[in-house]
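Hey,
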Amino acid sequence: MGPIGQHQKWSHGYFSFPKLEGEIAPHMTFRGKEHLVWSLNNYLGLANHPEVRKADEEAAAQFGMAYPMGARMMSGNSKYHEQLEQELAAFVGKPDAFLLNYGYQGMVSIIDTLVDRNDVVVYDGESHACIIDGLRLHMGKRFVYKHNDIESARKQLERAAKLVETTGGGILVITEGVFGMSGAQGKLKELVALKSEFNFRLLIDDAHGFGTMGKTGAGTHEAQDCIDGVDVYFGTFAKSMAGIGAFVASSEEVTNFLRYNMRSQTFAKALPMPMVIGLIKRLELLKSKPELREKLWEIATSLQQGLRERGFDLGVTNTMVTPVFLKGELLEATALTMDLRENYGIFCSIVVYPVIPKGMIELRLIPTAVHTKEDVQRTLDAFSEVSEKLQNGYYKENKFAVA
């Protein structure tokens, strides 16, 4: 079953495939008990915003879930799909945009479409799984550089530049705007600066940065003042927009090439109208209510400052993503997580080897605009207690079991 599935008999329903019930909010029900939840990418709190709920409901009542029928290219286009594309393109600073049915599949398909066997891809070593899977479809060469290491990126670009002299292809550099596990920003501005030495196009996956980063929330490329240097911008709706689907934005030439050549979209049914109209409303709120983004950062800053003041290691995060690194083995990690859930009512994600090195535990917290300072304080107190238990060997001596 692979490294995750091999533990499914005892982890299913608790560590994997857990059921969080009730309205999407910081406080939800897990296995019949109230929990403070830090595992939802509902960054701006739009999932249950009353204007969003109203837009979704009215669109569903008017159009149903089937409309439009067919793929966009054949019979599934609408003025609303085109309106959303135009508004997204303008917001992220690109001439054109193209809607995608899913985020993960979208990135896989973008890579598959943009490069052929003559092209070379240079990518960050900690790229998301969707990027890695897209590269698996690439029949040409690919070179990986050390995570956020610009000198390593330069060396790989040197290799790529020599290779394309013989293949006649081009170079595509891929990184993330915000790395979702560590919270680090990709070094976009430094990569853009490398264009003075090498001829390449830059594609960024800004799933976590879209709506959260930058002065207006346009993304990490806005935050780093390098909008023009990013050639292809990819954002998803599953994070700050609390929806489903994604988009890619670029020049009209590149966007139209993707629009007419992405097989995953050409042969897939268009996004349902309620989702599209709901996304138009979400984007409107994202742009018109900066207070939502300000509240997100207020909570994130309070949480991170409080954790650091108590001696916790948050790694290199410089975004709202909040990883907490502890020293411990797998059994200690599961026991600590169960203690947090069962005795403190706190639900957060747990990350262990092979995602991070052996002997380390990562508890990943995702702050949102709808969390409160009281939620932060409750979490700080709980983390201090479980950290002390971990250091004292409590989780080695006490056996926790999933009921």
